[in-house]
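Feature request, filed as a ticket because there's no other form

It would be nice if the structure record came with a short human-readable summary line next to the tokens. Right now we just get the raw output. Example of a typical job, pasted below so the devs can see what we mean:
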Amino acid sequence: MTEATRVSSIEQVLEGFLREVSIARHPATGRRVAASRVRLACYLASDADAALAPEERALVAAERQFGATGAAERALGPAALLRALPGYLRRPWLPSEPIAARTQVRMAEMLVDYVVGAELVEAAEAATSAHAVSRAAAQARRELAAATAPGG
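Raw output as currently delivered:
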């Protein structure tokens, strides 16, 4: 059985990503990654609906009947995660603290690399979603640079 057939939920993607990808080599970075993970869960639970197809929204609504916490992560798959990530890189979800925001942007980019590299989504959707996340990450970096520039 391949990794792609074993991973069916966002919850499983995030577990594998955090287990396999070395993003937090320093304890302070680890704390920022953990905070970004919590923000991602909150974003998926409350604000990611715009990126979802109607049937995915219905699936999440049904899953919430069994438990509101983590419903989107349990009910949705890797493709929905990739489609949702650009919104996670925008205000109000992007932290105002520059180092935390940079960590969140980098984590989102690495998540895309992980999902695409493991072939957890169809190639065409992976390319479209990766491009959207890349654009959102670049915009977030521009905003961070402007906010941290002298006089910004």
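Something like this underneath would help us a lot:
The chain has eight helices and no strands.
Residues 1-5 have pLDDT under 50 and may be disordered.
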